[in-house]
Records
---
Amino acid sequence: MPEGPELFLASRYINAECAGITFTGKVEKSEISKNLEVPFESDGYLISAVSRGKELKLTLSPLKREGSKECPMDLVFRFGMTGNFKMVPVSDMPKHAHLRFYTQEKPPRALCYVDIRRFGKWEVDGTWQADRGPCVMLEYEQFRDNVLRNLSDKAFNKPICEALLNQKFFNGVGNYLRAEILHRSKIAPFEKARTILEDLQRGLQVSGATLSKKVKLKRENPDLLETCHLLPMEAVNLGGGKGYDPTNREGAAVFVEWLHCYSVPGMKSLRDSNGRTIWFQGDPGPLAPKERKSQKKKTKPKPAVQSSKAPKPRRNSTSSPAQKEAKGRKKRRPENGVTQEKEEDGMVKGARGPKTRSQRSSSDLQESLLLSTPTPARKRRTPAQKTQSEKAKASAISRPKRVKAS
């Protein structure tokens, strides 16, 4: 996200590109942008810009003419994640140019507010947000005084890494700046903010040094608040900031080399209570977050019910009729030490009534297959047993089939 240095570089870029250039016509907004229309139109006007922390003010000033009642208009921009300004020929308009200001030149050019992710916003006739403190870069003395006078604020109960993102006191500091500020000041990111800042306040009261001596000490050993001012100015002097200067393509590489901590390999990282990642080295401090447990409700898995019955073996659909008959035989309990076999259920059911022609043909086929298939040896029956078995079969065939009364 663009921070104080990037907003300052954007204002400097606008002033350099628009110096002495007259703009004309209506301010044009893209159709897909959800921001407000800018109700400004003039035959000739000038554009200038100034930044303050994470905000940029664009001023549209109509040229002074006799009888003209046109008034200047201020547009306050907050860049979001990817906002920036570009001056381009109208024939080479960027795809994501969501606000366009046209020049009187021939061929005309356009100053475009470009925002790929469309998180940025602008406010018509806007002013600096009241809840934002002085700029850490351009209003250093007011910024320092604002912090040290308000140490009782609940914002300083939090870790110093979270307090540095509070724009009420640190207007212009963002994620990469806070990591670099704390790392170069050798302060653990999760130390309590008030503890750190109260030490600065006591140090100023105890030392009876003159102003010139204090300035010298600050230069040699800058404290946390001084570093909040110096590091953004260093980033500006790199020429490209965090790669948001459209005229400096090499700025991003220079910026990466300038970083000591932020997203640097070998550094540690944690997420603060706001979900923002802080990069650091060494001990995180006493207020470091513990491992976050999942908020999802854990349900105990139901115990698997074990059946006392053994699983039935799967039948093979490709078995022959003879194999099916052999598998269908079930063993009876041993009687007198001899295991007797029970005949197949189909044969017993068939004995209850006369068979049809199709049943007789299938039965004959099964009998022929049984004859061709070797079967295990059976115990021979005596003639008396054979006679009793034949009589039982004859009586079963002659017995009429019972019909249940409905």
---
Amino acid sequence: MGSSLSCCGKKPVDEGTNIIAGGSNHSWRIFTYKELHTATNGFSEDNKLGEGGFGSVYWGKTSDGLQIAVKKLKAMNSKAEMEFAVEVEVLGRVRHNNLLGLRGYCVGTDQRLIVYDYMPNLSLLSHLHGQFASEVQLDWKKRMKIAIGSAEGLLYLHHEVTPHIIHRDIKASNVLLDSDFEPLVADFGFAKLIPEGVSHMTTRVKGTLGYLAPEYAMWGKVSESCDVYSFGILLLEIITGRKPIEKLPGGVKRTITEWVEPLIIQGKFKDIVDPKLRGNLDERQLKQTINVAALCVQNEPDKRPTMKEVVSMLKGTYPRPKVNTRIESGKYKDEILAPDQERDNGVPEESGYGVFGAMEVPTMHDPFKRFADNRRVAKQV
């Protein structure tokens, strides 16, 4: 099938190398820079889906009609190089319907680009807190579908792929939604591959404050249980429609666990639910889901369930459902919240919105919709 130049570099690569990866059951390949430049209209601002500390993400369409999202990293340094290598390595290993698949990548002397399938419903974040929040597209059934699907993706990473993988950055912006609101966990730049027989390791803290397990945020101790904690926060976010950390009058910070714990103790489950749902939900499922979330965010890692147990409990198939009425969640120390305060004072947060970038959510747009509208106008003319 011949060869072509790899991105901006001069080393020929074999385009016939196809390795199945990702949830979309498609093979990935190496793209040329010219292909991606053309697909994104020269990385036009009109095509930009978002940007953050890592670089920018653009909507694109290949010559064969495939819609793609292209993550174009900023100028290379050792940190960015490592995250790029980790993400490509991990994406090349995983294959699950609830994990965002790798479409390809492009490597050159001063360019690093990763190509994914474009997700028309963007991220869970955009529906809970962003430009789609007022439309209330996420009813209770969709929210549970997203919760269970995301959990199944994590179960695969923790228990089925070898070596096991810890994501380390589970959050609403890293749960992307396809046209049917099927969730795909994305952004593996911080992922850790865990050798067989290793239960945990100590590492430099990565991730997003509010989702970080206490033992990881304070001491850098990372394990699969850290992802379980982050998923518990995500589950509370899905149920309540609240952010993981809220700023109260006077600049005081309150975590979602601090807000929800008194309501759980008092059994006021309906008061926990996102008001936008207007009470349209399954009460039995609500209680079970709150119980799962409370178990996931326990302060002590040993008290948290595994992702296998989480999936079973969410589906109602766990043989002995654990009952929990108290979260006993840890509270971040002031020194950990200090960097978050700096971001409030104007210091940008890197990678705040995951694979689609850390741009302000209300200004994000769906380029595919705009391009489709343009085509309709053109046809009418």
---
Amino acid sequence: MAGNYYRSVSLVFLILIVVVDISNGENTTELDGVWQKRAVEAKEAALHAYEPNPTSVTDHLNGEVHRATDGRNSTRRDLHKYNGPCTATNPIDQCWRCQSNWAENRMRLADCAMGFGRKTTGGKGGKIYVVIDSSDNDLVNPKPGTLRHAVIQKGPLWIIFKQSMTIKLSEELIMTSDKTIDGRGAQVHIAYGAGITLQFIKNVIIHNVKIHDTKAGNGGLIRDSVDHYGYRSKSDGDGISIFGSTNVWIDHVSMSNCQDGLIDAIQAATAITISNCHFTHHNEALLFGASDSSKEDEVMQITIAFTHFGQGIIQRMPRVRWGFVHIVNNDYTHWLMYAVGGSKHPTILSQGNRYIAPPNAFAKEVTKRDYAAESEWKNWVWKSDGDLMMNGAFFVQSGDPKHVFASGADMIKPKPGSFVNQLTKFAGVLNCVPGKPC
């Protein structure tokens, strides 16, 4: 479950901050004021990012998949069917992967987002920051050249890595807005320490890194921007925690075995796309919506596309409350309990996925509704369209049988689940070599 990300501080810790932080000229009122201001800005950003016509987003993505797989002519992003050594198989990948100069033109990636996170540009337009040091020893004054120093800098920044490395975060990595973490050209592991936190920020891309074996942090004094640091309570151990943040794109990320969730999106986080990822060996994978009482999550809109849910995943792929989630052309080859679940009337549109049920005769159902009688959940809009059900898998739909997400003929049908093996062929971290198509 999601933890207390507001990091409320007890009187004992308030006293501790005053004593420890006096040399920085801060006091607890200013400390609280910084996060209060960020929270207000984040709420405004969420309302601005909310798409009142979500079907326009789902239809656009389905249309791009058809163009990519049918080999039609280019679109505004020069998406077309590639021949030769590059075998990008879905429209996001076809936007950039077959360019041999990707390493000299890294920011092209920012033009390729689709789904609800389609407006995310990350650090595009900013400087390139090269991480040369895998250490994470000073949380208050991070060492230049480290990932922690990079993510707190002001303005847009495109963060890359000089060489392959494993970064063991001493405590949660608190990012600022307008950043891209781009692991292409190196094997980058964020592992065996804390995870990544996106709290009350916007416009972040996380791309081509492996995040695994994350642990809960103990908290303490941590810098969260160039101009501010403060006390943080214990973190949960999520791989990526998206809290009240908007315009987030997570692409070609491999994740497994995190202490809590792989990815949490809560507290009015919205405009998020998770694409081309590979998830394995985890219990509660994706949690969207903090609690049944968090009505602010009604603005939550998330796309999951071209992702492989693989070996050792037990449940929550995702588990949703309140919001709208488009689950399209993903490969569910393993689950032990269920695949897609939720409570508090979320809207779930499952299109063109492949669901392969486990051998367990009691775990064939793809869906699971929590904390509601059938008389209540039968009104939740959960639809399956073009999904491929295998090994006895079945999806229990709900909501008005006549409900459509667009006006009949205007709705673009998804590419059916039989295409999933092709569309997810390169899910997870890529082995990108400069000078060659990725």
---
Amino acid sequence: MNNWSDTVAKLHRPLDKALFRALSLVLAFYHLAMVMWDSKAYSESIGGFNPVIAPLMIWSLCASMVFGIGFKPKHWIWQVVFSPYFSLIILLYLTFVRLAG
């Protein structure tokens, strides 16, 4: 099991930089603020909260916060669940849709 944890940690090492952590936190706080400020307008701007977008957004917000504050899960399963690769892609997509629309 430890070998898997080390392998996943090595995969995450390229993003383990202050710039990516800050980007992750800024994107998460931005989308969280938009949901809290005017969730109806935010929902309309990203195409609505549907059964795919809503859970992905909630998960990516949580994963971005975990990554952004610097918490590093020890077990490989949690490293994959809170992977910055997936969460940053989702939040960047939502940011692009929100600002382009």
